[in-house]
Design a protein that fits this description.
The complex is a heterodimer of chains A (311) and B (227). Chain A is an alpha+beta fold and 311 residues long. Chain A is 30% helix and 33% strand. Chain A is built from 10 helices and 16 strands. In chain A, helix 7 packs parallel to helix 8 and helix 8 packs across helix 9. The longest helix of chain A has 14 residues. Helices cover 13% and strands 22% of the residues of chain B. Chain B has an 11-stranded mixed β-sheet, covered by helices on one side. In chain B, helix 1 links the parallel strand 1 and strand 2. The termini of chain B are far apart. Classes of the chains: A alpha+beta (311), B alpha/beta (227). Chains A and B meet through helix 10 of A and loops of B.
């Protein structure tokens, strides 16, 4: 039982109230903590920085401290523009320079491996933050409330099968696939089969979390040329078990529900935004429920919705 | 009047119980903000008015109570209700009126998947549409659906009746569509008297085909498909 949340606002609304995304997700996750507080995380669409910058999210399953992460950052292979240091999680925005993304990623991987860290997400338009414990822990290290624009997703985890550590936390991304993060509530029952199939196609699993099969499946489909909507529609057929998913990419937000509607998901539609969460109480934290312009209901079994950013 | 803000579910439910014991006939809940398990287990003839959206299992296991929810509701609305009346002005989540034993539940909007699952008596009216596998393993009572139904309507139902006016994406295993009798017409007219709109003539009836009641080797294929 995990809690998932997502917010999408129109361009006008995003410009009028720039802090909406981060603030809304924090409020929703504080309520969704009733579904789990092993770890908490968010993936936010952020204002795009300079061209050729890359944002790495690094995490360690071991214990870490500021001293270790500072030493690690000193050995960083390219110029660091911004960094956010949390306990066991680092988000580093750096220049790509003359390097290829693949080369820089390999170098970063080598540098941090020595310190027990690994890359859990690579982004250009998104920023992924995770923390053990509840949302207050997440806010202690990262300025979530000030960062998001346009859309974002969040997760409150209750670990059922894989380990409770920062590598296994959510949002989960797909290894080496830029700007793709998912939050998943449910259980993928054909995980082993799916994992073998994806590994044969060159997808690299870094956790034992069944939700990672979802993000890698979507990344593989998108790499094959599927749009996000097509990938999600294929997922509702090919993934077994229960899942309510919210996906963020560089310019889209997608939602999918398994064909049996096993896991809860509520979608509130307002004139200027869409709010998605596992439970109504999380939506009530950010939406005035008696506002007549709000339409709140559960997406259908097997339903897929995708919103795309204009321009 | 009970304001749910800054109170736990336990506190709110305790206040409702105290209020009932004090002899109040009408209790109003304000700002429930999606709280779960509100008003569960009350078995006294009182009016409960909830202003706002409620979470899961609202007024479950109740009897004799009249509940009006001005808002939307989450999963398992009025689950295992023995009697009384519940009305919701908005939409509801999965498993609305699950294991309903008696009384009446009216949803003005749409209901999610498995609406009226394992209903054992009473009446569920959904004026909007219902989701996947509604009326699954229904055993008695009636479901009236003014809108459409997704796949698996009335799957493996034992008895009882589903009346539907809209489109059925697919009937469930062993669910069959039959014509309306005069008694059905009267029943619908009475049941829908308080609901706006004239639905009567457009309804069809879905009942159990009886094939799953006893195992027959020749019908193995049907059994294999049944969940």
């Amino acid at each position: 039982m995990c809690g998932i949340a997502g917010v999408w606002v129109t361009k006008e609304q995003a410009e009028a109230t720039p802090k909406t995304i981060g603030e809304s997700l924090v409020k929703m996750l504080s309520v969704l903590q009733n579904r789990g507080k092993d770890s908490t995380g968010v993936a936010l669409r952020v204002t795009r920085a300079e061209e050729e910058t890359i944002r790495y999210t690094l995490a360690t399953a071991a214990d870490s401290n500021v001293e270790i992460s500072t030493t690690m950052l000193n050995a960083w292979p390219s110029r660091i523009i911004t960094k956010w240091q949390g306990r066991g999680v680092l988000v580093v925005e750096c220049e790509l320079g003359d390097l290829s993304l693949e080369y820089l990623t390999t170098r970063v991987g080598q540098t941090i491996k020595h310190f027990g860290y690994q890359i859990v997400s690579i982004n250009r338009n998104l920023a992924v933050f995770r923390s053990l414990g509840n949302v207050a822990e997440l806010l202690r290290s990262f300025p979530i409330e000030t960062l998001g624009v346009h859309y974002g997703i969040g997760h409150a985890r209750l670990a059922t099968e894989s380990r409770v550590d920062l590598v296994h936390g959510q949002p989960l991304s797909a290894n080496n696939h830029l700007d793709l993060s998912i939050v998943h509530n449910g259980h993928i029952t054909n995980y082993e089969k799916l994992r073998r199939r994806l590994e044969q196609r060159g997808m690299n699993f870094i956790t034992a979390n069944d939700s990672e099969a979802v993000s890698l499946y979507l990344a593989w489909r998108i790499k094959e040329g599927y749009s996000l909507r097509e990938a999600l529609e294929a997922a509702t057929v090919e993934l077994d078990g229960s899942f309510s998913l919210i996906v963020a990419t560089s310019n889209e937000l997608g939602v999918a529900r398994d064909k049996y509607a096993f896991k809860p998901l509520v979608l509130a539609e307002l004139p200027d935004r869409f709010v998605i969460a596992s439970e109504i109480c999380a939506i009530s934290a950010v939406v005035e429920s008696r506002d007549p312009s709000v339409v709140m209901q559960e997406p259908k079994a097997g339903e897929v919705r995708v919103w795309e950013m204009a321009g | 009047m009970i304001d749910c803000r800054n109170k736990s579910v336990r506190q709110v439910n305790h206040l409702i119980k105290v209020s009932v014991e004090d002899g109040n006939r009408c209790i109003e809940l304000l700002s429930p903000r999606g709280m779960h398990n509100l008003g569960v287990g009350i078995t006294t003839d009182v009016d409960l008015v909830i202003k706002g959206d409620v979470g899961h299992y609202c007024v479950a296991m109740t009897d004799q109570m009249t509940t009006r929810i001005h808002g939307n509701a989450g999963w398992g609305l009025a689950e295992n209700m023995m009697g009384g009346k519940v009305s919701v002005s908005g939409n509801v989540g999965n498993a609305a009126a699950a294991s309903l034993r008696g009384g009446e539940v009216i949803v003005k909007g749409n209901a999610g998947a498995r609406a009226g699952i394992a209903v054992k008596g009473g009446l569920l009216i959904v004026l909007g549409s219902v989701g996947y596998m509604s009326g699954f393993m229904m055993q008695k009572g009636a479901l009236i659906i003014a809108g459409d139904a997704e796949e698996g309507l009335g799957d493996s139902m034992y008895a009882g009746a589903i009346y539907i006016a809209g489109a059925v994406a697919q009937l469930g295993n062993d669910a069959v569509e039959v014509g309306l009798s005069d008694d059905d017409e009267v029943f619908l007219e009475t049941a829908l008297a308080s609901c706006e709109g004239a639905w009567g003539s457009r309804f069809r009836k879905v009942i159990s085909g009886g094939m799953l009641h006893t195992f027959d080797q020749k019908e193995y294929a049907v059994w294999k498909n049944a969940l």
